[in-house]
Design goal:
Belongs to the thiolase-like superfamily. Beta-ketoacyl-ACP synthases family. The structure is a single chain. The protein has 426 residues and is an alpha/beta fold. It contains 14 helices and 15 strands. The strands form 3 sheets. Strands 1, 2, 5, 6, 7, 8, 9, 10, 11, 14 and 15 form an 11-stranded mixed β-sheet that branches. It is globular and about 60 Å long.
Length: 426
């Protein structure tokens, strides 16, 4: 090792040597990047299930991972496996013997209604009276093992660990929309502590269902712009009316820079800093003064050894909900000041929708590609700017730009806020 392998605090510099992604735009880094930078939307009408009576009938669902009906666990696993295998292969490592830990962000697990109704050991009346624990006990005994597997939060990570050959107990976390970024942070911290030379961080979410749409609709969080699906997600626009629920997976192979150099691996980018802050103000709303968001942004930039002036581009959380976009802009302005109006900031959720627990990981992949390719993805559907949020959103068309550092924000329901800072590979 040399001094150039360590950061400003004497910690191992974290290299990203592999990337993988699945989204409503398609499967694989190349397909996603081409459509993302081309301003193509993956939002479409839902055909997976009946939508009559639902307020929202559009999504960024991933419908090409298999023909048979899949549970949320099954689809989340298939997307995670595809993204993880792609990332490990790009890193030049065997995709069945990774020899490092797995940190997985996955959706919260709850037995789906179709599985509850399949538990026919009880009569309808008895089933209605039964508690969730009783349903799990019945599911465990049911001939269809997939019903019980759908209730286990560790199921996806166990399957991935076997498939990818990771080491140690796989970690599964679910911190709402910050989950993907939090999984990456866990991998970064493990390498910084010297516990491992490499780790794979994956975020995945395949949880679009009638029930999930209803739940978010009850929170008035979803767009109801059903007539033109590809125009529904419009971050930072004056007429934004909610986010579009989506599915996908993102994966990154993290490695100490010294390890990557020693084996001659290609480095696609660096992870320079991680910041996180909790917000206990409300279950879904941000603290009015924005202090937890401001704290997370500052913490990420400071951890990277940078100042706000060192950030060249911001990958926004940018969900397209009225409050989130306003609060994110408020937090960023508190940190960046007047420079925010000239610092490009765009949201890929305008094209792929909001992938929930996978969002932070997918956006990390796109952030690294932005640095590597010197190309800023646009915010599409930006035709009606919000005068209260003055930003350079890279409107509607991708832009060439030489940048050296990217801030990627992830702010989740329940007060989970995580910010990552990425740097260009030397």
């Amino acid at each position: 090792m040399s001094a150039s392998d360590f950061d400003h605090l004497g910690r191992p510099i974290i290299a990203v040597t592999g990337l993988g992604v699945v989204s409503s735009l398609g499967k694989g880094v190349e397909a996603n990047w081409e459509k993302l930078t081309g301003g193509v939307s993956g939002i479409h009408r839902i055909e997976r299930f009946e939508t009559e009576g639902l307020r929202t009938t559009i999504s960024g669902s991933v419908d090409f991972m298999g023909d048979e009906p899949m549970s949320s666990v099954d689809l989340s696993y298939r997307m995670a496996e595809a993204a993880g295998s792609e990332a490990i292969g790009m890193a030049g490592l065997p995709d069945d013997d990774f020899a490092g830990p797995l940190f997985l962000a996955a959706p919260p697990v709850e037995m789906e209604w179709r599985f509850r109704l399949a538990l026919d050991r009880l009569s309808a009346a008895e089933r209605e009276e039964a508690g969730y624990d009783r349903l799990l006990e019945i599911a465990r005994q049911h001939p269809d093992a997939s019903i019980y597997h759908s209730t286990q939060c560790s199921r996806i990570s166990e399957l991935l660990a076997d498939r990818l050959g990771t080491r140690g107990l796989p970690i599964t976390l679910s911190t709402a929309c910050a989950s993907g970024a939090s999984a990456i942070q866990l991998g970064v911290e493990a390498i910084r502590r010297g516990e491992t030379e490499r780790a794979v961080a994956i975020g995945t979410d395949g949880s679009i269902s009638q029930e999930s749409l209803i739940r978010f609709s009850l929170l008035s969080a979803l767009s109801t712009n059903n007539a033109v699906p590809e125009k529904a997600s419009k971050p930072f626009s004056k007429d934004r009316d909610g986010f579009v629920m989506a599915e996908g997976a993102g994966a990154l192979v993290l490695e100490s820079l010294a390890s990557a150099r020693a084996r001659g691996a290609k480095v696609h980018g660096l992870i320079l800093g991680c910041g996180e802050r909790a917000d206990d103000f409300h279950r879904t709303r941000s603290k009015p003064d924005g202090s937890p968001i401001i704290g997370a942004i500052k913490a990420g930039i400071e951890d990277a050894g940078l100042t706000p002036e060192g950030i060249d581009y911001i990958n926004a959380h940018g969900t397209s909900t009225p409050e989130n976009d306003r609060m994110e802009a408020t937090g960023l302005r508190a940190v960046f000041g007047d420079a925010l109006t000239t610092t490009p900031i765009s949201s890929n959720k305008s094209m792929i929708g909001h992938t929930l627990t996978a969002a932070g990981a997918i956006e990390a992949v796109f952030s690294i590609l932005t640095l590597r390719e010197s190309l800023l993805p646009p915010t599409i559907n930006y035709d009606n700017p919000d005068p209260a949020i003055e930003l350079d959103t890279v409107p509607n068309t991708a832009r060439k730009a030489e940048i050296s550092a990217v801030l990627s924000n992830s702010f989740g329901f329940g007060g989970q806020n995580a910010c990552l800072v990425f740097g260009r590979a030397a």
